[in-house]
Amino acid sequence: MKTTNWNYSTAVVLSGLLALAFLSTAQLSTAPAAKPYSIVNTTQTMGSGGIDYVYADNDGGRLYIPRGGEVLVFDLENLKPVGSITNARARGVAVDPKSHHGFCSSSPVVMWDTRTLKPVKTIEVQGRPDGIFFEAMTERIYVFSHTEPNATVLDAKDGSIVGTIDLGGAPEQAASDGEGHLYVDLEDKDQIAVVDVKTLKVTAHYELGGKGGGPAGLALDAKNHILFAFCRNPATAVILNAADGKIITTLPIGKGSDGGLFNPKTMEAFSSQGDGTLTVIKETSPTGFEVEQTLETKPRAKTCALDTRKDQVVLITIEPSAAPAAATSTNDQPGKKRGGRNDGPGMLDILVVGR
Questions:
Q1: What is the Cα 27 distance to its own chain's centre?
Q2: C-alpha neighbours within 13 Å on the C-beta side of residue 172
Q3: Taking the chain, what is the end-to-end CA distance rounded to the nearest angstrom?
Q4: Is the pTM of this model over 0.70?
Q5: What's the rounded Cα separation, in Å, for the pair 61 and 102?
Q6: Count helices and strands in the chain by DSSP H and E runs
Q7: DSSP for 2-69, written as a single string
Q8: Residues contacting residue 267 through CB under 8 Å, at least 6 positions apart
Q9: How far apart are CA 186 and CA 174, in angstroms?
């Protein structure tokens, strides 16, 4: 009698477990997809002068946007203006959160205290400063130029020049893996240069193999060693193995990319484009990638920054107040080399994309 009861009870328990397992599987298979991205906040500021890169200092809670002859500074949380760095006609900004020093890619380079926004010094560099990048492992600033020297390397602690690098082409954007490797896309060579950050030597050039041309945006999944090269001609994301440069796959993106980033929390890469779109690529595995969403933003919103606290993407563009034919150069057309610059008066739009 006891044996019979035990067998009956066991059967009931097993049936219950099987039912739960089936229900869990059914719930997983019908789980809703992630909420799509949308523009969750915007702000406008009237001014004059061109723009290029936008930079989010997540440690300091500030957003930097070079425009005209100054670097505009906003509160990253509410996008309200908090000050500016004057006498700094720059294209980009980089910040060392340890020394609390900010730098902009002007000529000369301006260095300031990020807590007070007061200038510390100016640094004479060669070439034509364009992009700029902070490499955290060595605590150094890379100032990029389309002419030689392609990179001038500064000590972020005191602003001294450590050295220069011939990258073999015109650099656009950079990414570091935190393990001693810096990757720089070369717009005119359709390559990605690999730099040893300790020796300041180029150790490799990864060819895009005709899969994409004019790489301008670059993003890196450092954990899985995946590079995303966002190209203009054709409008393609070339996805490579960062360890050896082998091409994994390609995906379509919008026209006129000039900025890219990767969010390791969501395993998504983003490409911002001058045609007014933001392409979101989902990394489902180290070998699996798909275009998750193409979001309509605003024309010429071609560079981007990541707010790591909110997992949001910040974009910038200018709405010219004068007639486009008079105030905007041909370079503003999607796919052109230096899209998005407007030297006349106009409204600076800051767009925040999130879920």
A1: 35
A2: 28
A3: 60
A4: yes
A5: 13
A6: 2, 28
A7: HHHHHHHHHHHHHHHHHHHHHHHHHHHHTPPPPPPPEEEEEEEEEEES-B---EEETTTTEEEEEETT
A8: 221, 282, 283, 284
A9: 10
Token look-up 């602690």 returns: 157
Tokens of 140: 């150094």
Q: How far apart are the C-alpha atoms of 153 and 134, rounded to whole Å?
A: 10
How far apart CA 142 and CA 341 sit, in angstroms, is 23
Give the pLDDT confidence of 17-69 residue by residue, as tens digits.
444 444 444 444 445 678 999 999 999 999 999 999 999 999 999 999 999 99
Q: Positive or negative CA dihedral for 166, 170, 176, 179?
A: negative
Task: Tell me how far CA of residue 287 lies from CA of 179, 238, 248, in angstroms.
Answer: 22, 13, 7
Write phi, then psi, for 181 (nearest 5 degrees). -120, 130
DSSP run (H or E) holding 325 = helix 324-327
How far apart (Å, rounded) are the C-alpha atoms in residues 102 and 94?
6
Q: Which domains does the chain have, with CATH numbers?
A: 36-354 (2.130.10.10)
Distances (CA, A) of 285 to 34, 272, 293: 17, 23, 17
CB contact at 8 A, 281 and 271? yes
